[in-house]
TrEMBL record:
Pfam families: Aminotran_3. GO terms for molecular function: alanine-glyoxylate transaminase activity; pyridoxal phosphate binding. This is alanine--glyoxylate transaminase. Its cofactor is pyridoxal 5'-phosphate.
Amino acid sequence: MSDLLARHRAVIPTWVTLYYDEPIEIVSGRGNRVTDSEGRTYLDFFAGIVTNTLGYDIAEVREAVERQLATGVVHTSTLYLLRGQVELAEKIARLSGIENAKVFFTNSGTEANETALLLATYTRKSNQVLAMRQSYHGRSFGATSITANASWKNSALSPLSVYFLHGGDRHLAQFRGLSDDDYVKVCVEDLRHTLATVVGGDVAALIAEPIQGVGGFTAPPDGLYAAYQEVLAEHGVLFIADEVQTGWGRTGQNFWGIQNHGVTPDIMTFAKGLGNGFAIGGVVARGELLDALHATGLSTFGGNPISTAAANATLDYILDHDLQANAAKVGERIIDGLRAAGARLDVVTDVRGKGLMFAIQLSSPEAAKRLLEATKARGLLVGKGGLYGDTVRMAPPLTLTEDEAEEGLNILIDALEEIS
Ligand code: PLP
């Protein structure tokens, strides 16, 4: 065990996840590659933790942050006007597709979801919430309540009454043979049945990830959430899209993952990739809805000058370079390549994804662990997840080049062959 790992074990809780038998310490990054303390370089197919949308050390982001640092203001009270915050809110409001939208900034996805839950339950005067099975929404009391996997939460204690819906995946045997249309029909029937029988009284909101992130990048058929929204609208239930992993063009198809379903949500939450590694999250919703949280206040660090400088530069870069189109093109090449390899390798049970958000499901959690080690040994960083921990997830920077895509794909195929 390295000295740093021993020190980590001594002072960091045991449940904090660390990848690899011998965890690595990243000490530098350039482009879409990082280098560890032993001098080994890796192509990063997980973009940090779906955070480094533009990879590492992008001049535009570094210079924007340096310009802000040069003013001497790392942080000032969020009680004052902050130009960068207003500019960022204007951009996100415009991009959200939500009418007369307003934005509230937080420091993380968890806080963003807490704010969305508060907004929905307060304005709808109900603490009943619908969420999806196998969802992950964060680590706070409210966010773990709407998270649906026993191994991702500490208890079932909850400040909310939560009912979990089918639709995010097809783990159950009764769903597997169904066409997309039939699957959507069964799920909508389940939603209607839940609203009619399980739920007593009004429901505040449904919260859903357009593609389940930690759940293993399982995606419902496009259109499922539009069908849900139709039913929910009949009951006045708000739709919250958790775009923490799926926003900023990552899925290639649309700027927001929920747009792949033809849904304009009432509330959208975001975080992770917006600051290219700087901590920033937030909530965007119709102005009159967001304004209804009338208790005055602020977030001490939410929307601070450094994170908004990074986020403005990141967002401008994504739009100026049409990285959504790049995600579609490069992602398709990788997904096609993985599907072809998966078809001839028994260890692969599924390949799925959209744009630069794709996953390989393996025959067992042990196989996923071996693939993680085999890719690391070949200089590629990937993520893990899935309901049973049997899925290797990848979400490379949206700046991934075709050559890097090819390199990563070849490493993955080689590593899959080794573990087969
Ligand atoms: N929502 C989703 C979909 C996530 O994947 C995550 C984190 O992985 C969160 C919320 C929580 O975000 P954070 O870790 O920034 O609090």
